[in-house]
Amino acid sequence: ESQYKSHVYADQTNVTDAIIQSRYELTKQKGSRYVPAAFLTGLLDPVSSREEFLQLFADLEGKLPIMVVSTKGAPKRSKAEMEALRGAKGVSKFVEVEGALLPQEEYPSHVAQELYNFLQETFAKC
């Protein structure tokens, strides 16, 4: 709960008992025991450097429209990784919304509106 209040959600009042309970239930699923540790240590990352990460996007240039959603309240290290994508090759649009690490949960209507706008801008031309 403390992590959600300190850096996962931007607004502590959005961390409800129901959210904490749902996360706790996830830890009871078969095979989930080591997922948080793997996530926190980077073992789930498909790349080992920022350059490799940026190359994944560059390789999609002209093939697929990509919108990156950054957040205003992300922790410093996470924010730096998000900002590395601003203007990066392969990124069609970069937007910033309220929130920290899970804006799609904390502010779903804001994220949905940005996604809607992106889809309209991208596919209205077709």
TrEMBL record:
GO terms for cellular component: chloroplast. Transmembrane segments: none annotated. Gene3D superfamilies: alpha/beta hydrolase (3.40.50.1820). It comes from the Eukaryota. PANTHER family: ALPHA/BETA-HYDROLASES SUPERFAMILY PROTEIN, ALPHA_BETA-HYDROLASES SUPERFAMILY PROTEIN. This is At1g74640-like protein. It comes from Arabidopsis lyrata subsp. petraea (Northern rock-cress).
